[in-house]
Write a structure and sequence with these properties.
By secondary structure, the chain is α/β, with parallel strands linked by helices. The chain is built from twelve helices and eleven strands.
Length: 272
């Protein structure tokens, strides 16, 4: 078999594995939308990420907001980014090892009033006034978490999208909630280490699980140098793209020029 035939087979396999959803019309409304990353937080003003004050600030400024959901030990949906409490509470325990009542008693980032909110609290605070970009965190009960999130959103009147780093979570939405706009989060290989081995990092950074999930959009790390797979999505498939984290005016201008979804914070905020 000639080298050219092998190359064609390899390219065809790559296209099959990494192709997103064919229904790009689902994302047309979201082109150029801007989401405050974990709410409009500013620790200098005592506003901690993923807390009600951060989400209320984004709501009042008219920005959509990105947020992270996962389970507490007693299967309550909370809004918190990290797997553990170490960075924000100096506590090494995993979030899913701690019941809701105890989680809500822990001050975050040294701010006494900053507490972990429930997903329901955030939905009530936003009240459908601005759109939500909901990241489903990977954990020990992914299917149950996806179902619980959708059950809570069943009577929510606002707009929302979902996304996850785990292609199996995105696949869950493809199967069980195909009407929901779903996104595949992706990072460069270094972003997955040391949590996973090199093979898994290559698989995830290359978006080789797209054949399962067929995402409606791809949310990529805009600050990762030499990161090839987003370019493949953008130029070969013309996939709707979301950029995270937009944190400088220069990156904000580039993302705006591309008409991509902007997940911003700090100096990447529009108008800064």
């Amino acid at each position: 078999m000639s080298i050219w035939i092998l190359l064609i087979i390899a390219l065809a396999a790559l296209a099959f594995l990494t192709h997103p959803s064919l229904n790009q019309a689902k994302c047309r409304r979201w082109r150029g939308e801007r989401f405050a990353h974990r709410g409009l937080h500013d620790l200098r003003r005592g506003v901690v990420e993923n807390t009600l004050p951060a989400f209320e600030a984004a709501r009042d400024a008219g920005f959509g907001m990105e947020l992270d959901v996962q389970f507490s030990k007693d299967r309550q949906i909370i809004v918190f980014h990290d797997d553990d409490l170490l960075r924000l509470a100096d506590d090494p325990r995993k979030v899913w090892e701690v019941p809701l009542e105890e989680l809500r008693s822990i001050p975050l980032a040294g701010v006494e009033s900053a507490r972990i909110p429930t997903f329901r609290q955030v939905l009530e605070a936003v009240g459908g006034r601005v759109p939500l970009l909901i990241e489903i965190k990977n954990g020990p009960y992914n299917g149950a978490l996806c179902r619980a999130v959708m059950d809570m959103l069943a009577d929510y009147s606002g707009e929302y999208l979902v996304e996850s780093f785990n292609p199996l979570i995105v696949l869950w939405f493809r199967i069980h909630a195909p009407h929901v706009v779903r996104g595949q989060l992706v990072d460069a290989m270094a972003g997955y280490r040391p949590q996973v081995n090199a093979t898994a990092a290559f698989f995830m950074a290359g978006m080789l699980g797209n054949f399962l999930s067929r995402p409606d959009f791809v949310a990529y790390n805009v600050n990762a140098p030499g990161f090839f797979s987003p370019h493949l999505q953008r130029f070969l498939f013309r996939t709707p793209m979301a950029a995270w984290t937009v944190d400088t005016p220069e990156i904000a201008a580039l993302v705006e020029k591309r008409r991509e979804i902007s997940i911003f914070e700090g100096e990447g905020r529009p108008g800064v």
